[in-house]
Amino acid sequence: MPERTVLERGAELAVLENLVRRVRDGGSALVVLDGPAGIGKTTLLRSVRARAEAAGLPVVTGVGSELERQFGFGVVRQLIEPRLAAAGAARREQWFTGPARFARPVLEEAPGPVDAVPADAFGAALHGLYWLLAGFADHGPFLVLVDDVHWADLSSLRWLAYLARRLDGLPVGLLLAVRAGETPADPRAVEEILASPLCQVLRPEPLTATAAGDLARVELGGPVAAEFAAACVDSTGGNPLLLTELLRGLRAHRVTGAAEETGLVPEFGVAAIATGVLGRLRRCPPETGQVADAVAVLGPAATLAQVERLTGLGGPQVRACVRRLVALGLFVVDGPKFVHPMVREVVYRDLPTGARSALHERVAGLMQARAAGFERAGPDQVATHLLPVAPAGVAWRVTALRAAAAVARTRGAPETSAAYLARAIEEGPEVEPELYAELGRAQLHFDGLAAVRTLGIAHERADAAARPALTVDLARALLTVGRGAEGLSLITAAVTAAEGSTTHGYLQSELYFLGWQHSGTAPMITRRLAKVDGTDESGLLGLRSCHEVFRLGSPVLALAQARRALAGPALYTEHWGPHMSAVMTLIRCDDLDRAAAVTSEAVTHARRQGSFLRYALSTCLRVQVRLRQGRLDLALADAEESIGDRDPGWQPLAAHRYAHYLDVLLALDRTDDALELLYRMELDGELPELWHFNQVLDVRGRLRLAMGDLDGALADFTECGRRLASWDVRNPAVIPWRGYQALALHTAGRRTEALAVLEPELAAAREWGLPWTLGTVLRIAGTVTGGRAGEALLAEALAVVEQAEVGLVHAEVLTELGLLRHRLGAEQSARETLRRALAVAEQCGAIATGRRARAGLRAAGGRQRRAEHTGPAALTGTERRVAALAADGRSNPQIAAELTVGVRTVEMHLTNAYRKLGVSGRTELTAALGG
Question: For the residues of 488-536, what is the DSSP string, one character each?
Answer without folding.
Answer: HHHHHHHHHHTTTSTTHHHHHHHHHHHHTTBTTTHHHHHHHHHH--S--
